[in-house]
Design a protein that fits this description.
This protein is of the alpha/beta class. It has a single domain, classed as Rossmann fold. The chain is 36% helix and 19% strand. The chain has 9 helices and 9 strands. Bound molecules: S-adenosylmethionine.
């Protein structure tokens, strides 16, 4: 399909009043979305693919980061029997499927046709009961107060309008509901140290600054998130109950290859030790996981 554009001035909610949990069928959700116009550069890639997410060689620190990010986020959601859980920007629906297996009544929302196909494949292989909806985070096609829990992992900084997405998360949650948001921190210790080191080397070599380094946000990110920016987005709509950090030194030059040369057991011990520090220091960690409850107790 290509790309759809949103017009900030014409934010209109979908009319979902006639539906129960209000899930629109995959192929109907997008044509119903309002404001598919404008060209304010806020776009949604309807063909987004995760092929490029992992590098050809996955070093131990990166593998550890992804593994922990999933485990901690799913642990924070901890869906119990019959709870309705919405995974926003669900990608392959790996997390939604895992939460469904543990008893949640899971829904995955995803705009990319490719990712929806992959999610369907995963769900059918896995036998998990996940309902997929094709749609975007800024206009969730669900009635207010529908969900016990919302999960948004590694996706908020891909959204065209993250502020609207947060408002929508609060709207679709029940008053006592919980949102768990996990995101990369571009002001982590590893990234800060990496940036400073490279700036120093460049200055010594009298080279010009280069924006292509991997601690700059990738092309498919719309916002550069760190602890304060995330808090600023979330706090108008949520009370943050808990913030947890994962991993500390991804991004520090030489760290990945050093871990790769160490015996696996030793590098695992180093990563676990650093994780214990990161856990309490989310503003310096590579990944931030927050659990929050909606501020507005009214579901109207
Ligand atoms: C890095 S992936 C994360 C996927 C999944 N949550 C995971 O952890 O494996 C980001 C996802 O956000 C989706 N996305 C991008 N823009 C979106 C939007 N406006 N609304 C909802 N999802 C969006 C992308 O299509 C992609 O599948």
């Amino acid at each position: 399909m290509g790309t759809i554009y949103y017009n900030d001035e014409s934010v209109v909610k979908l009319d979902t009043s006639q539906q129960d949990i209000n899930r629109l069928p995959c192929d109907q959700a997008l044509p119903h979305c309002p404001g598919i116009m404008s060209n304010n550069n806020k776009s949604v890639d309807l063909d987004w693919d995760d092929d490029h997410v992992l590098p050809a060689k996955v070093y131990p620190d990166v593998a550890h980061l992804f593994r922990r990010m999933t485990a901690v986020t799913i642990g924070a959601v901890s869906a119990v029997d019959k709870e309705c859980v919405l995974d926003i920007g669900c990608g392959r629906a790996l997390d939604a499927a895992e939460l469904a297996v543990s008893g949640g009544h899971c829904f995955g929302l995803e705009p990319s046709g490719r990712m929806i196909s992959r999610a369907r494949e995963h769900i059918s292989k896995n036998g998990a009961a996940v309902s997929l909806t094709r749609g975007v985070s800024a206009h969730l096609p669900f009635r207010s107060g529908s969900f016990h829990k919302v999960i948004c992992k590694g996706a908020l900084d891909h959204f065209a309008q993250p502020d609207l997405a947060i408002a929508e998360m609060a709207r679709v949650l029940k008053p006592e509901g919980k949102a768990v948001i996990a995101t990369a921190n571009f002001e982590s210790l590893g990234f800060r140290a990496g940036r400073s080191l490279f700036a120093l080397v460049r200055a010594l070599r009298r080279e010009r600054a280069d924006n292509g380094d991997f601690w700059q946000i990738p092309e498919d990110h719309t916002i550069r998130l760190d602890y304060d920016t995330l808090g600023g987005l979330v706090k108008p709509h949520f009370r943050i109950e808990r913030s947890i950090g994962i991993s500390l030194l991804v991004g520090l030059p030489g760290w990945s290859s050093l871990l790769d040369r160490l015996p696996a057991r030793v590098s695992a011990m180093c990563l676990s030790a650093l994780d214990r520090i990161a856990y309490r220091l989310p503003s310096l960690s590579n990944v931030i996981v927050i659990s929050c409850t909606p501020r507005n107790k009214s579901t109207a």
